[in-house]
Amino acid sequence: MDAHTLLGDYPDATPVSAADVASTVNAATPVLIVLDDDPTGTQSVSDLPVLTSWEQTDLRWGLEQGSRAVYVLTNTRSLDPHTAAERNREVVQNALAAASEVGVTLAFVSRSDSTLRGHFPLETDVIAETLEAAGRQPVDGVVIVPAFPDAGRVTIGGVHYMRTGAELTPVADTEFARDATFGFANSDLRRYVEEKTGGRVAASSVVTLDLGVIRGGTTAIVDALSGVTGATPIVADAVDENDLRALALGLAAAEATGKTFLYRVGPPFVRARIGADEHAPLTAREVYGPDGSEARGGLIVVGSHVGVTTRQLAALTRERTLAATLELDIADILDTARSDGHVADVAAAAIDALATGDVVIHTSRLLQTADDAAASLDISRRVSAAVVRVVQLVLRAHPPRFVIAKGGITSSDVAAHGLGIRHAIVRGPMLPGIVSLWQPVDGPAAGIPYIVFAGNVGDDDSLARVVETLAHPATA
């Protein structure tokens, strides 16, 4: 499908600067608490705190950083629905308590996948219910913005697409819609809402902010939202940053009239909503500082099984000289008699090789799933636990110069459990608009750059490019 043809029905985008949005932010503007269902949501932002734990003291630390948003890594995309619901509820309750201590008001963002995988509507339902139970004003609308233009995910006319050049593929026609746990049949977000709510919300009752409304200006957006109430789903178009910023201005104005929104969004929404500029890709000097870094090897951990990740892994091993490329065999991991020995052998080989260069550890490229979603999640958790154990053993024996984790569940578990990161600052992206670098501020990995690389973003050579940036210590 040709993008130019679809866009011909709408006015051109009007330039909107980050400063335009930032001008709407004041001391009374709520701080966004971003419940991120895997750590890849941070790839579009910079200089914001991220938490892998959500006790009240953790959330207070995040709020005390003085940022307009705080990311909380819930990792719920790897959890069963019941556990995911309980985790969302706990984060909201603790965030409200911490905000009361610090003296700030909050708004909540449920950050999820730009290809529509995740616990929807469960997560937004639970957040809304928890807020109302705490005495907060009922949510008028749930604003759904999965667009991620930097990664080629755009929404036009309420329909969500993956973009390659000028060609658009409805997202339901991609491999992501066949996900074993979160598969779906509809690219039209209104029908997606009806599908995922089991018919509780009819497609016809979903409010659509198409490009005509978004590009019509703030007044048009406010008018379109004036009648929403009762947590009405609202789907919003976006094909570039100007659209996201125009939407941000409209939402800010609608909130000023008393409307209360909850957000279900892809990665770049938060950046646009708080009026932050796009951060240029980090350089080696910015990563390591003017004095450079020790010349020990870096660790690249690859867990994602989507096609682009497998191609990126192949390009990395083809284009760069690595000290070792090691496989965690899923069959061995799932065999309780062999699992511990296999994990120990892979870790020992990685520790030896890191003394001479960069090391890749990847799971078997053949994805193993089960007959139902719960069993498939169990396999994913067992594999991820093995990855975590390898990283723990490596970190203890030979801390790497950097760590890259490829894949959502992989990135989350490596951060929270493999590296023991509790609090970090998102420094910025490694590639334009994608792939974030965290600076751990506590735990055994403090001082080791940690790169969160989503499984479903980038070109075939993107992983090799990130490793190239990190491979050579910066010099003054």
Key phrases:
single chain; 476 residues; alpha/beta; three-stranded antiparallel sheet; 17 helices; 18 strands
Molecular structure report:
Helix 4 packs across helix 5 (122-133) and helix 14 packs across helix 15 (373-397). The chain has 17 helices and 18 strands. Helix 3 (56-64) links the parallel strand 2 (48-51) and strand 3. It has helices at 3-7, 18-22, 56-64, 81-102, 122-133, 189-196, 211-214, 218-225, 241-256, 269-273, 284-288, 307-319, 330-334, 339-354, 373-397, 408-418, 462-471; strands at 31-36, 48-51, 69-73, 106-111, 141-145, 153-156, 159-164, 167-170, 207-209, 232-236, 261-265, 299-302, 324-328, 359-363, 403-406, 423-431, 434-440, 450-453. The chain is of the alpha/beta class and 476 residues long. The strands form two sheets. Strands 9-10-5-11-4-1-3-2-16-17-18-15-12-14-13 form a 15-stranded mixed sheet, sandwiched between helices. The chain has a three-stranded antiparallel sheet with strand order 6-7-8. Helix content is 38%, strand content 19%.
